[in-house]
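User: Here's a structure from my thesis project, written as structure tokens. My advisor, Dr. K., wants to see whether a designed sequence matches the one we expressed. Can you design one independently, without my sequence as a hint?
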């Protein structure tokens, strides 16, 4: 029989989908269909608000956008349980 730690170790290599949500907007279908190049859609989040980090659709943390080597990244600033992320944690 596996103890709790062994069971968790078995799950560590399971693939999950991590996504970052910039914001949301509710629109009527006719407005979505009228979107074209250069259309602007305003989102429900302010520029200085942290972004939502989700794993398989479940909120796990808040993050800030960072840039490194010409690519976007994120810095975790708060875990979903309200704890602050350890210093130096970034993805």
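Assistant: Designed independently from the structure alone:
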């Amino acid at each position: 029989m596996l103890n709790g730690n062994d069971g968790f170790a078995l799950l560590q290599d399971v693939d999950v989908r991590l996504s970052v949500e910039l914001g949301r907007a509710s629109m009527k279908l006719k407005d979505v269909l009228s979107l074209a190049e250069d259309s602007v859609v305003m989102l429900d989040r302010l520029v200085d608000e942290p972004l939502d980090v989700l794993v398989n659709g479940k909120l796990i943390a808040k993050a800030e956008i960072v840039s490194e080597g010409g690519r976007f990244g994120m810095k975790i600033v708060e875990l979903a349980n309200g704890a602050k992320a350890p210093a130096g944690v970034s993805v």
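When you compare it with your expressed construct, this may help: The first helix runs from residue 4 to 11.
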